[in-house]
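User: What would this chain look like folded?
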Amino acid sequence: MKEIKATSAEGYRDAINHLKRIDKPIEREVLGKKIIVLPGSFDPIFQDSQFLASKLNEIISQNSKVLDMGTGSGIQAIFSSDKASEVVAADINAASVECAEKNVLLHGLKNKIKVLQSDLFENIKDKFDVIIWNPPFYDEEPKDIIEAACGDRENKHLGLFLKQARDYLTKKGFIILIITDSLNYQIFFEFLRIGKMSLELIDSIFNKKNYHIVKLWYRR
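Assistant: Here's the prediction, encoded as structure tokens.
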């Protein structure tokens, strides 16, 4: 499966156009796992999705409780389940919720992964050892729910996520994000300063677009 690498404002438009061209269910193979993609949901063909999924087995400790925010096809929740004892997969997009549910059933993980519709933490009740998010990182104003998977003007949703996540982490819990050079780093690090958060770089890939997996935690 060829990865899509969105690299600029033009890349943003290419990514959105790709997502909107999906008009029937399709199958992807990601790191040896079959993933169904439904129209209106997020396609894990993108390089950031696959890079993050490839590292979760190293990041997540055995029997952790995990929240996959913005789950899309459910890819991060499914890869998290290899070690996690319990996973909640949440997305604001109803099409993504349906898509993730199908993939959870496909992989026989109904007893381990709970899928629900939620605008960030709106319908989240529990606390987690790990919260994962592959956030929208383009500084673009989304026009609809599909574009909201890629565009976040002035990182407003990322800022709200980082403000709220503290209340949904266990005492030693942490956040895993994948970020890119399309992100406004000045705004991002200001969010970390205001939230009294620390950052550790887990891994990076460098090519036409640079991706960085980072671990974040709140200083108590």
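Confidence is low (pLDDT under 50) at residues 1-7. If you want, I can go into more detail on any region.
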